[in-house]
């Protein structure tokens, strides 16, 4: 019998903290459904006290999911209460509370004298806060996880002391994060082995690890800790997360699976769902997977040189340590087109992880047909983008009704836009440095806004002249960044839609109705 390593997925929490990533509510719910298909053990759905959107995401995922759903919170009553409230209807709620334990964090983050004057005094205050937090969380659920933030750089004796204390207070999982991605695999493995020796009640809790990738060692550190006693791995799809990201789920899982000759561990992951999950996360977050990324990159199973291709034709094991099928990479590209029927579309979407029925299927099919009119061949990635855009429509009170662009090498780029919101329309024109600039300026004029643009990018989702263009616009509104995405075969239209979506998200988050503001300023 193999020993199980629990997979704790933090794509929706730490992953979403990636610079440039932001997910709306519908996207989070959809990813959580896919994580369930992937069969992760725990889904960390967010940090409820940090924003109303995070709260709602945790609430929705908790309500729907048959998996354990974790909510992050600082070691503070207010945060813990908020995590509990967000998880109130979850079938298997987990409260995940954390506090810093390294000297550098304690002296930096708890510098106020009310935590004590010396490091030793502050450490005792932190220990008490950790114990109080776990005890309070236990009043809501038996499933309480404690994380010692920056455990990788924490003094071993103090780490052992605090871990023993939180287990005594009822923590059922103790997480040892390498928050700054500083440790070395053998060193991190020894840290886990050391805790097993030093902490007398360690067997009353599951040891978890959470490794960041600042030195590119997150997966190696995770595997080393498993060899030394960790039985929960915290990780994210495509390795997304703060700074250089978290340990990548697909790499941990496939390393354990492919090298099962070396150890006695297994995970419950349905590996054939890895590729679909990776694509969904990339498409919704806008974080592109590098082509040479292990397991899920476009080149992960591509064989370029003649010698490699020849070897592969004779025996695929010559250059492949796992098959593309084992991680769900499709071997044949199924292309849909204008003659594909509704059922064909539904079946393809279902194979990609999207369950679409009834009225939603009618809407998606109508959009598919209109796309197929513009673009002969519809690839899986087009469908993923279409589905992402469909979800976004649910939060889109500002709609692009009309767009006209005049641009060329010998003319001044000019754009006219008409925007619809709540039955009213707002129309304006503007010139600009280029057609996209003119279009953004026309939107700003129509809605009486100053320039809010923080960044803008555009990419093609598939190859070829008819490829769909996906535009990403980040707006700086009230000191917060709002990310909008738009897709179209016309990149100016995609850009305008992305701009309006970011504004809509801001409107939803702030509760301010932009159109009311316009009426007041006109
Ligand atoms: O990196 C970290 O330490 C974390 C904790 C909150 C688990 O994300
Ligand atoms: Zn982290």
From TrEMBL:
* InterPro entries noted in UniProt: 2-IPM_HCS-like (IPR050073), 2-isopropylmalate_synth_dimer (IPR013709), AIPM/Hcit_synth_CS (IPR002034), Aldolase_TIM (IPR013785), LeuA/HCS_post-cat (IPR054691), LeuA_allosteric_dom_sf (IPR036230), LeuA_bact_synth (IPR005671), PYR_CT (IPR000891)
Q: Quaternary form?
A: Homodimer.
Q: What does the record give as the reaction this protein catalyses?
A: 3-methyl-2-oxobutanoate + acetyl-CoA + H2O = (2S)-2-isopropylmalate + CoA + H(+)
Q: Which SMART domains match?
A: LeuA_dimer (SM00917)
Question: Listed GO cellular component terms?
Answer: cytoplasm
> What HAMAP family does this protein's entry cite?
LeuA_type1
* Matching NCBIfam families: leuA_bact (TIGR00973), PRK00915.1-3 (NF002086)
Q: What is its EC number?
A: 2.3.3.13
Record the organism.
Chlorobium phaeobacteroides (strain BS1)
PROSITE patterns recorded for this chain? AIPM_HOMOCIT_SYNTH_1, AIPM_HOMOCIT_SYNTH_2, PYR_CT
Report whether Manganese shows up as a keyword of the record: yes
Reported function:
Catalyzes the condensation of the acetyl group of acetyl-CoA with 3-methyl-2-oxobutanoate (2-ketoisovalerate) to form 3-carboxy-3-hydroxy-4-methylpentanoate (2-isopropylmalate).
Q: Where is the Pyruvate carboxyltransferase domain?
A: 5-275
EC top class, as a word: transferase
A Pfam family recorded for this sequence: LeuA_dimer
State what protein this is by name: 2-isopropylmalate synthase
GO terms, molecular function: 2-isopropylmalate synthase activity; acetyl-CoA C-acetyltransferase activity; manganese ion binding
Write down the CDD domains for this protein, in alphabetical order. DRE_TIM_IPMS
